[in-house]
Structures are given as C-alpha cells and as structure tokens.
Predict the 3D structure of the following.
Amino acid sequence: MATIPSGLSGGSGLDINGMVSQLMQIEQRPLQILKQKEVDYQAKISAYATLLTSVSGLKSAFTALKNTTIGMSASSSDSTSLLQLHRAQP
C-alpha cells in the first residue's frame, strides 16, 4: 500500500496509515462473512448429498429384500410354534 506523506497529517501525530488500514479491514468484513457463509452452505449441501446417497442405498436394499421374500409365507394353527420357529433362526 502507498504511504501517505507525513506532511498531509498536518503534524497532528495521527497514524493516518494505520487508520486507513483499519478502515480497509472493516470494509472487507462483510465479504469475509459472505465467504464463510458460502463455505458453510457448501458443507451442508455436501452433507445432504451424502444423506441422499445413503437413503437411496437403503431403499435399494429394502427393495432387494422385498423382492427375495415375495412368495414366501409361513403359517401354523399354533401361534406359539411359529414364534419358536422365528426364534430358532440365526
């Protein structure tokens, strides 16, 4: 950054360069906040995409399970024997 000649400060002892630097930092703050929000939103989008992929995989697994169990049934006139059969399976 270019320095301000000392004659422009009028010998007041004010740190003009420091004040200008601070003002420039203050002006950059809204941009920094927006950039951080963008990073946060990108992380959320990535998390939602991961969740969607997982749910899609779960749906596929349930569909495959449903397709393998179609046509299978168990019945018994004695409800306790059906319960015992279910418990006996590993």
About this structure: The helical segments are 16-69, 79-88. The radius of gyration is 35 Å.
